[in-house]
Amino acid sequence: MPLSNSVGERDIASLIHPYTELARFRDSGPTVFTRAEGIYVFDDAGRRYLEGMAGLWCTALGYGNQETRCSIVCSAVSIVPRRWCGRKACAARRAGRH
User: Fold this and answer.
1) How many Å from the N-terminal Cα to the C-terminal Cα in the chain?
2) Strands 48-50 and 33-37, how do they pair?
3) In whole angstroms, what is the distance from residue 7 CA to residue 18 CA?
4) Is the sign of the CA dihedral 87, 91, 97, 98 positive or negative?
5) Is the pLDDT of residue 93 over 80?
6) How many CB atoms are closer than 10 A to CB 41?
7) Do residues 37 and 64 lie in contact, with contact meaning Cβ atoms separated by under 8 Å?
8) pTM of the prediction?
9) How far is it, in rounded angstroms, from Cα 83 to Cα 32?
10) 86-94 average pLDDT score
């Protein structure tokens, strides 16, 4: 049976979510988040939620943080595939900044 184009229907048909009561989940469906800004995430109906779960597994830096985005891009495009390549310029530029 082909899957629908609906993100929610594809989620129900294809994914297993840990700690979720799957029988009830099939009836209620997922909350589909489509964008984020700062400490908030927004669902596909435009409702805003305070995002608090990311901090359980990783550092919560906020969404859309320009400095973080620039650091990630700088690091990704400047990775040198050698084991001992000296000091990383991106890390050195950011060192000591708060």
Assistant:
1) 53
2) unpaired
3) 18
4) negative
5) no
6) 20
7) yes
8) 0.58
9) 41
10) 59
In the chain, what's the furthest Cα-to-Cα distance?
56
- AA letter at 80: V
> What is the rounded CA–CA span in Å between residue 35 and residue 56?
20
pLDDT digits (tens, 9 = 90+) for 33-86: 998 888 888 999 999 999 887 666 666 677 877 888 888 888 777 766 555 455
Q: What does the pLDDT read at residue 43? A: 93
Q: Where are the alpha helices (DSSP H) in 1-98?
A: 7-14, 22-28, 66-77, 89-94
Strand-pair partners of 37: 40
What is the rounded radius of gyration, in angstroms, for the C-alpha atoms of the chain? 19
The pLDDT assigned to 62 comes to 74
According to the model, what pLDDT value does residue 11 have? 87
Rounded to whole angstroms, the Cα distance separating 66 from 55 reads 19
What is the rounded distance in angstroms from the CA atom of residue 24 to the CA atom of residue 33?
A: 20
Positive or negative torsion for Cα 71, 77, 81, 82:
negative
